[in-house]
């Protein structure tokens, strides 16, 4: 039955629903107060629970609990779904998680790491000898920096230290070149074009800064080799190697005074062997089968030694190939050429012993310029000369000499100059369509 309330005026009573009043009794108001509809009516107070009761002590007094509502125990079966999952309950009075301990741990760890790193750095700095003087020290200092004299003799630095005292800067009027000492009493090998125009003012400078006067002993324009004598004794000569024993790819050092920069050493390899060179100016042509290297060589390097990995001289730096339009613009592009030391030493020995060099010849002249076919075509053959004795004739085309392929007449002249007079070489030549071979014993010219 729905509850129905009647708001009366003063002195009136309240009619309650029997299900709440317990019997439909009518209660009268005894005063002048307003009568409500009973929404805040209080139920009768229950008796206090007996001692030892397992229920809440104030459960029956809870105004929000209907003491007459039936109770039941519900057991949920795992996996059974009877409705939407209950919302998570968060206790507003539970203590919140604090990030303070985590931040404190991170801070302590950082301080410990920084302190440990600083301590180790200081210890290492003190042991390394940098914590001295009280000032700011940049970088680390080695305990015992090795001196150049302590380098291994076969290292590049060791080879440079060994050779440099024997290398000289040659000063000629208006020009600077290089050379190297070959005897204790002062003989120096250099290029012919270095001493061209030399007079009594010529001098040399050593790697230690000392200087001495020098005089011309002799020169051979065709081989580009010259010898000068230094007015100083007790010198250290270079070690002479064997230029016939080198191979493409061997490491080499070039010494000299490029662009007047004294005591310069550059490094490279042997790029090619028997590179035939025809060079010269003012009507003088020079021929030699050169050692090609990519070691940096520039003007002023001329006459300086090219040295192998054993510290032995194997060549005399002489010319470079350049893309410059003229001599003043010429510079290193990795194409430098040296006279083989076997040839230079032989020419220098002739100059010292005889006052002039002997030139090796085959006893024939060649056609200048290129040919329609590869090889050196013989223009003429001297009667009773080496070529004629071996059976060669005019118009024969020499294609190889000791296995070296010839492209033109320059190759033949340059390669013949490489050998000493009296050497016997194998020659392959073509006569018409037939290829033949012969052995030729070379001789010195009669001049």
TrEMBL record:
Alphabetically ordered keywords of this record = Hydrolase, Membrane, Protease, Transmembrane, Transmembrane helix
Q: Does the keyword Hydrolase apply?
A: yes
Q: Where is this region: Disordered?
A: 1-95
User: Which segments show compositional bias classed as Pro residues?
Assistant: 43-53
Question: Which SUPFAM superfamilies does the entry link to?
Answer: PDZ domain-like (SSF50156), Trypsin-like serine proteases (SSF50494)
Entry's transmembrane regions: 102-124
Pfam families hit by this protein: PDZ_2, Trypsin_2
Cross-referenced PROSITE patterns, in alphabetical order?
Answer: PDZ
Instruction: Name the domain of life.
Output: Bacteria
Q: What is this protein called?
A: Trypsin-like peptidase domain-containing protein
- Its source organism is Paractinoplanes bogorensis
